[in-house]
Amino acid sequence: MSSTAAPPAATHxxxxxxxFDRALTEGDIAAAAELFGEECHWRDLVAFxxxxxxxxxxxxxxxxxxxxLSRVRPSGWRATEEPTSADGVTEAWIAFExxxxxxxxxxxxxxxxxxxxLTALDELKGYEENAGVNRPKGVEHGALAERRSWLEExxxxxxxxxxxxxxxxxxxxxxxxxxxxxxxxxxxHVPTIIVERNAxxxxxxxxxxxxxxxxxxxxxxxxxxxxxxxxxxxxxxxDKIADWLEMYTRVMELDYWGSTTxxxxxxxxxxxxxxxxxEREGADVTLRPKQLVFATGMSGRPxxxxxxxxxxxxxxxHHSSQHPGPDAYRGKRAxxxxxxxxxxxxxxxxxxxxxxxxxxxRSSTHVVRSETLMEVALGGLYSEQAVADGMTTxxxxxTFASLPYRIMAxxxxxxxxxxxxxxxxxxxxxxxAGFQHDWGEDGSGLFMKYLRRASGYYIDVGxxxxxxxxxxxxxxxxxxxxxxxxxxxxxxxxxxxxxxVYATGYESMNGSVADLISQDVAxxxxxxxxxxxxxxxxxxxxxxxxxxxxxPTQQEGLWFHGGNLHQSRHYSLYLxxxxxxxxxxxxxxxxxxxxxHHTR
Length: 600
Prior knowledge:
Elements: H1 8-25, H2 29-34, E1 36-45, E2 52-56, H3 57-72, E3 75-79, E4 84-86, E5 89-97, E6 101-110, E7 113-124, H4 150-160, E8 169-172, H5 176-187, E9 192-195, H6 203-206, H7 238-251, E10 256-257, E11 260-268, E12 273-280, E13 283-287, E14 291-294, E15 316-319, E16 333-337, H8 341-352, E17 356-361, E18 366-369, H9 370-378, H10 384-388, H11 393-401, H12 405-422, H13 424-432, H14 445-453, E19 457-460, H15 463-469, E20 473-476, E21 479-482, E22 486-489, E23 494-496, E24 499-502, H16 510-516, H17 519-525, E25 558-560, H18 565-583
Parallel strand pairs: 1-7, 8-9, 8-14, 9-10, 14-25, 15-24, 16-17, 16-24, 17-20, 18-19
Antiparallel strand pairs: 1-2, 3-5, 4-5, 5-6, 6-7, 11-12, 12-13, 21-22, 22-23
Helix pairs in contact: 5-18, 9-12, 13-15, 16-17
């Protein structure tokens, strides 16, 4: 009888996992650390740390294990797919268990040593979601006196929550972020109320300018549990997204309080709970959740600059978030201040409807054509071809998550080098028109700009061609004041205007905390978003993870959730598991609670 030898990749992975399992079981932290290369990165999503944290180097491995190993008691390390090798790197998808949960992750080996390790908590033992073989029956068969239907049970539950029964979690913000997290918590039986000032789920999309579409492709944008159907457009129009969110909220049976405004919140230290005052359809209601989540996107209040003369300008002026669309401005002179995504979208729509449009570019912007971005940067994970090749949304998300932010920038540089070469003519025409373009301070392009500062880029879906042709006029410079009918730049240039749109971005999410709770709590939590890369609008020191997102903060019981649809989908699981564990009274000591270096 002949036998086939295990492929070298599988052998190397099995040896590493068995060695790691043995070292951890024996409590030999030094031996475990020796299995990592001198340059190494271990990213943990809740499984070991009850945090979202990345440690670097063998000393980091020793520190993490020294603080967590006796409590976590990991075991059962194994590969879940056939490992692969390419360009000197061996990769494997892995699974493991801890004392309280089951996890999965990813491993990269170089010369038999771990270069990157991802460990992620998938579920809590004894608190699994009611899915698959555990799905609810929906009805109790038999003849039961005074039986209540599903609808009656659901209505009674919804009426009681927030009145006779207090929610364990209150989510401020009912956009896609709050809805995705609410769905995760619902499946984990965590009583949750989503508070949204708009009347209906999706209204935050419905009320935006009519030309708004997602710039990310559909494969990148699924919500948890229910994917978009196969005939859904590649780029989702805002009103389709709005309707989808409304449908999703009903189907997932979320307790969604529309037409409700949170007016104040404070933490009761003695009771270990929040006192959240809301106005619901004209009535004042007090909620007392143990956990409070801000799900207002990745940004807070709209940033509206204070230019002299704004009070005397006789035309229309508003922030891009309040822009009603182009219809009323046919034949009018429009000045859009800003040169990122919203600015380009609004300029293009105004031009399409016959306005005379000028874009004021105050600083350089990174632009990448949508088609090229999809093919070069996203195609391997989020595309129809990726689906045909067997890539699932969940596996694509984990692939992204397996790349620690420290090395991600270096891996992105060659991607944008290829984009630069492929679309050289496009960039030459843009720059010939006077557009100030950049590739990020280290050449790492759009995604790192997004992670670091959430601004400074445009995914081109047509407006750049208008800029290159001069149909959208381009004016570099800084605005110094407004007059009754013009925008004045620092070099004295006057731009006649009937409309001024401030496409000037948003403030940090902790501004929303200051508004609802207090400036003291906002400062205690610190800046939200960014990596500490030391680049523009992302001051150091290095954080290693997104500041304050999806993880514990310096304020007990206060959390932040959001990001793009991909991040909201993926990280909602880990935030939900952290909240569920606390509700059930599990011990959740946080390793490496984030320090606060910046308050704004």
